[in-house]
Write a structure and sequence with these properties.
240 residues, 71% helix, disordered N terminus
Length: 240
């Protein structure tokens, strides 16, 4: 077996050995809090290693166990990552209710990504009861840390809300921040606002520039919007 073969074998074996070790570690005893924090960090790192190597079904199951171990030891990142696996049915059965619980635990520890994911989940109301007000509060907290996805989601909520919460000034504010950070979806929505003059002075040149920036980041909807701008009135772009 060559050097590369040995390395691949080690990469497969170490996570399994590590999982068995972590599973055998208890929480009681002197210095338990420090020990648990260290174990949780190790478990998150092990899960991350697996997820970075194009994991198969068995790998996903092992990664999910690592993240759950970290989550149950109180790691905000473990809670966030395990919740994502529960939402996306990666290595575990889909369980949106449990995912929301883990996200809430991470959000309470001020994990901005958990605040964003839970906020979006509560606003959309898919697989969990809809709680728009709580969702907006969580998104605001994440947006205040300059999380561009939270800024985008909050801006889009204020842009499209039909329950009386629409606020085009706030939509523009949050979308501007997210677009400036390079979020292609924020660039798309903000570009559309400028093209239509919705909540902003109509500015076709700026609208096109934002769409071009979004398209350059492989946003298909932005590419379609640009194609429509360049067509004669009444025609639609051909589908490829």
């Amino acid at each position: 077996m060559g050097v590369l073969g040995v390395r691949r074998l080690v990469c497969v074996i170490l996570p399994i050995v590590g999982l068995l070790f972590l599973a055998s570690c208890g929480t009681p005893g002197t210095g338990a809090s420090t020990s648990n924090s260290s174990l949780a960090n190790d478990a998150v790192r092990a899960g991350n290693i697996i997820m970075k190597r194009n994991p198969g079904p068995r790998d996903l199951t092992i990664a999910a166990r690592y993240y759950k171990k970290a989550a149950d030891l109180g790691s905000a990142w473990g809670q966030y990552k395990y919740a994502n696996m529960l939402l996306e049915a990666q290595g575990v059965r889909k369980d949106a209710a449990s995912a929301a619980d883990y996200l809430a635990m991470a959000a309470a520890q001020n994990n901005a990504w958990a605040q964003y994911r839970l906020g979006a989940l509560l606003i959309e109301g898919e697989d969990v009861p809809s709680e728009p007000q709580r969702g907006v509060e969580l998104l605001r907290k994440a947006a205040d840390t300059n999380n561009d996805w939270a800024q985008y989601k909050l801006g889009y909520f204020y842009l499209t809300s039909e329950d009386g919460s629409q606020d085009l000034a706030l939509a523009r504010q949050y979308l501007e921040k997210s677009a400036a950070a390079g979020n292609s979806w924020a660039q798309l929505r903000l570009g559309q606002m400028y093209l239509e003059g919705k909540g902003v002075p109509q500015d076709p040149a700026r609208g096109r520039k934002l769409l071009e920036q979004s398209a350059a980041r492989d946003n298909v909807q932005a590419r379609d919007a640009l194609a429509r701008l360049d067509l004669p009135a009444g025609k639609t772009p051909a589908r490829q």
